[in-house]
Amino acid sequence: MSDKSHSTTEQEYQRDYYKKNKVNRTKALKERWANDAAFRETERERNQKRRGQLRAEKAGWRFHAMIHERRKRLEPTRPPRWVLIGSGPAQQVWTTGSLGREVGRSGKAIRSWLREGVLPGATVYIGGSSFFSRRFCDAVYRACERLFYLDGRGDRLVLKRLVREELAKTNTGFVPPGGDNSEDRVVINNA
Fold first, then answer.
1. Could you give the number of structural domains in the chain?
2. What is d(CA 94, CA 133) in angstroms, rounded to the nearest whole number?
3. Same domain (yes/no): 159, 182
4. Segment holding 112, helix H or strand E
């Protein structure tokens, strides 16, 4: 109980001190701002950084809330399929609807991203349908999240660049639209 009364007393003291010295502190800060260029520059940088961090946090919260709400409304998507890609072991691949659900879009939007070149291709094409590996889905999710952190708008050119950067980070391969699953696999390298 003494801690609570102490904090209340401290708060009252701070409040009283601020009321008494408000004018003098404001004057001193204004004078320092006017006369000290280094102080002015550091304060501008600090405020800009703080605004950017708050904006990014809010955008991140909005992105995750949007994804969560979208997932609640959508029906469950198909389970992943197992396919052999190249000479490696069987991998799980997901449909366009599953990828769309992960990034808060519809399967139709993902197919339009493929047509327009926002997504460079798919992991594998089966019977004219595109399927995506877990690494590919994660890269697209991170790109969409980064886009949301940047400005919250759906600029497709920026998203196209971000998707390619994320795919390059993980060296995730894909087949371009209309390509052959066995021969036309592309891996973007960081170099």
1. 2
2. 6
3. yes
4. helix 107-116
